[in-house]
Amino acid sequence: MLTLASLADVWKANLLSPYILFFFLGVGAALIRSDLRIPKAFARTMALYLLFTIGFKGGLELAKSGFTKESILAITAAIVLSTLTPLYIFPLLKKKLGQATAAGVAATYGSVSAVTFIAAVSLLQQRELAYGGHMVAAMAAMEFPALIVGVMLARLGASDAPAAEAHAAGAEKPAKSHGLGSVLRESVTNGSIVLLMGSMFVGFITDSKNAALTQPLWKDLFYGILCFYLLDLGLIAGRNIKQLFKAGPFVIAMGFVIPPLNAVLGLGLAKLAGLSHGDGFLLTVMAASASYIAAPAALRIAVPEAKASIYVPMALTLTFPFNIMIGLPVYWSVCEWAWA
Prior knowledge:
The chain is mainly α. The chain contains 19 helices and no strands. The protein has a domain at 38-221 and 257-307.
């Protein structure tokens, strides 16, 4: 039952988790202009480790559950969400941000944040609520459709003027080869996606005896590495605050409004697909999150005229902390009510 007491309980447990506190430590360090830095090579290594871990554990879980009706429905629901979400976000932002940047924001919010997904999985584990390993595949599947739709929206009815202007301003002019096929290929071969899906496949075919041998790597170290990674994200978020203020109050407001709207879509689709409580919660969280790693990397190649200084800080500085502080506890409590 959804009550203020249960909401406060989940909020407290989530906010006081060490990895969440390290995120805010990073934000605070950036705001006071501390010289605290996480080496880029180490930050990339941590990101790769987290993707490997979640993929491998997901593969182990998928091997236990197998390809069931629920797994197919969950992956299909994720693809539908990723396709439809950019279509309603784009017209809301087009007039304010312009066609290319609005498409970039739409693609970013149609994709998914792996770190937010990890935080949601951690909450499920703390609450001992089961979820399917196939949700890792569902998360990876959400990257592709949003990117393709975003590029289509950026180019639909647009002339070559924006690209020419971007090139004149010093931005790289998009080559002719950067069509939808190129974007799809970029997404499929993106290192994050390859590692995530590859690790899931390895976990899927690994037997329990061999999985136990590597358990200290993918289980015991997980939360410690996550603390360091969120410390780095906090530093990045704190340094991007000024750019958001320059974007104006409308853009700032949308960074807080879009996540709960998307969460409602995810929850409704999860119920329609008949997903379990745990899987439904994860789909809701994935719908509410926004990508600030894989999607921006592809967008900078496919739509260079879109302003990364807008869609990256929106996802990282606004939406990510919002989901961690407020979103996860609220989504959890609403899902408890919905699956009661």
